[in-house]
Amino acid sequence: MTLPSCPDCVVVGGGPAGATAAHELSQAGRQVVLLDRAGRIKPCGGAIPPRLIRDFDIPAEQIVARATSARMVSPAGAKVDIPIERGHVGMVDREHFDAWLRQRAVDAGAVLIEGRFLRLERDPDGMAVVVWRTDRDDHAGPEQRLRTRSVVGADGARSQVAAQTVPGADRGRCVFAYHEIVAVPDQRPADYLGSRCEIHYDGRVSPDFYGWVFPHGATASIGTGSADKGFSLRRATDELRQRAGLADAITLRREGAPIPMKPLPRWDNGRDVVLAGDAAGVVAPASGEGIYYAMLGGRLAAQSVDELITTGDVRVLARARRRFMREHGRVFWVLGLMQRVWYANDGRRERFVSICRDRDVQQLTFDAYMNKRLVRSRPLAHVRIFFKDLAHWLGLVRA
Fold this sequence. Notes:
The protein has helices at residues 16-27, 50-55, 94-107, 160-165, 233-244, 291-311, 319-342, 346-355, 359-371, 379-393; strands at 9-12, 32-36, 47-48, 65-67, 69-73, 79-83, 89-91, 111-114, 116-122, 128-133, 144-148, 151-153, 174-183, 196-200, 211-216, 219-226, 251-260, 273-275. The protein is of the alpha/beta class. The protein folds into three domains: 9-41 and 94-172 and 262-331, FAD/NAD(P)-binding domain; 47-92 and 173-260, D-Amino Acid Oxidase, subunit A, domain 2 (D-Amino Acid Oxidase, Chain A, domain 2); 342-393, no CATH class. A seven-stranded mixed beta sheet has the order 6-5-14-15-16-13-17, covered by helices on one side. A five-stranded parallel beta sheet has the order 8-2-1-12-18. Strands 3-7-4 form a three-stranded antiparallel beta sheet. Helix 1 runs parallel beside helix 3, helix 1 (16-27) runs parallel beside helix 6 (291-311) and helix 8 packs antiparallel against helix 10.
């Protein structure tokens, strides 16, 4: 492998955001180096909506399971099963999905190197220099330097690229997520379905988020998240495994990582750096969904970098955030409000699950999730949902 002496872009981080940015830039004819730390897998339920599959040409072999229904479980154990009409939600295993995305970038022309980003320096002429090294099992490798015309920071929540280069990056807040990948036994538990995503809204499995049991074909992702540092995510995951009938299933992997709570106020340094994915804070509130938004952020970052190289106008870097928020900012605001209102305590969680029995709620929720846009074609349904939400919140309806 020969590294270019001064590539058009170094992408730091090889998850969905970084791999997508590297792929898009390589397809545009740019010289790209993708720097990724080996062996890191993000805790993730692995759900991807049909729009992601369409927009990013995901082949069928990457889909390890197809969810055709979702089950919401309340603190009192009430269960609401919601069919996913006119389609399904694809499930991916991040260990293999992320590796495939990186290989696709390489096939398009990107150079992949394994190493850990250390810092961004400047040559006397002002050119960015990415400093990195390979961490080996027994020792840290020597520092290496690579000049580059631009940098995409896609190195996750608490991004070092963001912290060192982008004003306001220290305002980002995170929750911590943890999951276990378990082998589903041949003799399936009585209440486990390989085509159903299960979501638990219960203070015992998360005081401010939710727990999940998501099918991955021969395996399942079971996990939870919380911003409460005193809350035991492992004990909560044990509880979820017990409920799913998978307490004794073989544990294949355990993974934990911080997850951002809202988009950062700025994604670029006004010069030659732009952020994408978790580094930019683009994980949906309430749902915790991040793969689609990460890949879209990677695409938008790549477009901004391509425009920067073409025009030399540093102002184009800010377009990545503007374009993203124009399309999804309102969705993020609505989901953030929903999380603050309905996840506050178990009484409200009980009422939230009860609301999910409503057909209007089900249809509009899944239309928005599947297609990644707020549904405006049914205004009367929105009005009905508003008054139903208000009645539940005021306690005028029994949960």
